[in-house]
C-alpha cells in the first residue's frame, strides 16, 4: 500500500521548465512502477511517461526528449522534469503507482496544475 502526493506545478513561460515531484507519504515507492499522466480541461487524461524500478522508463511521443523521469529512492519519490514547455492552460499532472507484482489496488495522487503562457 502506498499514498502519493504531487507538487511543483505552477505558471511558467513558453520554453521554460518545471520539476514535478511524486512523493510517497505512506509506503515504499520503489516497490511500484510510477506513471505520469496529464489532463487538460475538457479533454481525456493522456499518458505522459512511466518509470519502473531502477532506470527503466518510457515516454509518450509528444513529450519524448523534453520530459525526463527520475527516481530518488532515498527521498521516496519520483520526479518528472519538464523542459522546453509548450503552451497549455490549467493542465493537471498526476502520478499513478502500480505495484511491481501487477496485483492489488493502484493509487493516484491528487494532481498538480501546470499553466504555460506568455
Write a concise keyword list for the protein shown above.
single chain; four-stranded antiparallel β-sheet; 118 residues; mainly beta; seven-stranded mixed β-sheet
Provide a concise account of the structure shown:
The protein has no helices and 11 strands.
- Unreliable stretches (pLDDT < 50, length at least 5) are none
**Total DSSP helices:** 0
- Report the count of strand segments: 11
Mean of the pLDDT scores? 96
Strand content: over 45%
Shape descriptor reads globular
Question: What does the radius of gyration come to?
Answer: 14 Å
The structure class reads mainly beta
Largest sheet: 7 strands, mixed
Structure notes:
- It is a single chain.
- The chain has no helices and 11 strands.
- With 118 residues, it is an all-beta fold.
- Strands 2, 4, 5, 6, 9, 10 and 11 form a 7-stranded mixed sheet that branches.
